[in-house]
Amino acid sequence: MALVAVCAGVALYRRRGGADEAPVEEEAVAPPPEPSPLPPAPVVEAVTAPRARVAITLEVKRAGTNLLSAAVEYRIILHNAGEVDARAIALDLRLFGVDPALERTLEALFAAPIERAVVARFDLAAGATAALEGTAMLPRDIMPPLAVQGIGEGRALFVPVMTVALDYGWDGGSGRSAASFVVGLDRGADAKLGPFRLDGAPRMHDRVRQLPFTVSRDD
User: What does DSSP say about strands 54-65 and 204-205: parallel, antiparallel, or unpaired?
Assistant: First the structure.
């Protein structure tokens, strides 16, 4: 009986000893450090290939009407502001009259290729300037008369618009420049341009001026 009691006591002691042991806490594992952010990619600027770029300037010398047409005596100055030569320049010149559909007409004109150049094609070196002079005319029977209301109503008036368009190329590309100019009587720097009369005697005016019209193109 004593042996049994001793064995039982030992067994009891062992069980109690196991119950009194403190629990072992697991150590917290630190998360791995986040990777350093990558440096931003370097900005690479786009390199534009050199090209020709022909600018248009119009100088009006005289304008008015003769027996058969409206006429504008002009001097056109072309300047190649690009880095390379402009090759095989095709020049188109036209004279219109102001009317409600003119802007749409000019937009379509400037979008179409030049089929018949007014002079033989020519080249213009980078940085060079060329000047051309002549007279643009519009027959009287197709001039659109300008409607006048109020003071001056009943008069037949006409406001010419001259257009200059260019097609040209260079090694590796092609371009187009086009501009439109309204022409009228010069009434001073702060005054509007005056229209030309169609119901009076034909007359060419020396005191005239041009201003940019609303439609242009530079491709």
Answer: antiparallel
Task: Return the minimum-mean-pLDDT range out of 52-56, 182-186, 189-193.
Answer: 189-193
- The model carries a pTM of 0.76
Distances (CA, A) of 90 to 34, 59, 128, 133, 136: 64, 20, 17, 16, 17
CB-based burial, 3-41: b 16+ in 10 Å, e otherwise: eeeeeeeeeeeeeeeeeeeeeeeeeeeeeeeeeeeeeee
Express each pLDDT in 108-118 by its tens digit: 999 999 999 99
Rounded to the nearest angstrom, the gap between the alpha carbon of residue 135 and the centroid of all alpha carbons in its chain is 30
CB atoms near residue 122 (< 10 Å) = 16
Backbone φ, ψ for residue 82 (5° rounding): -85, -175
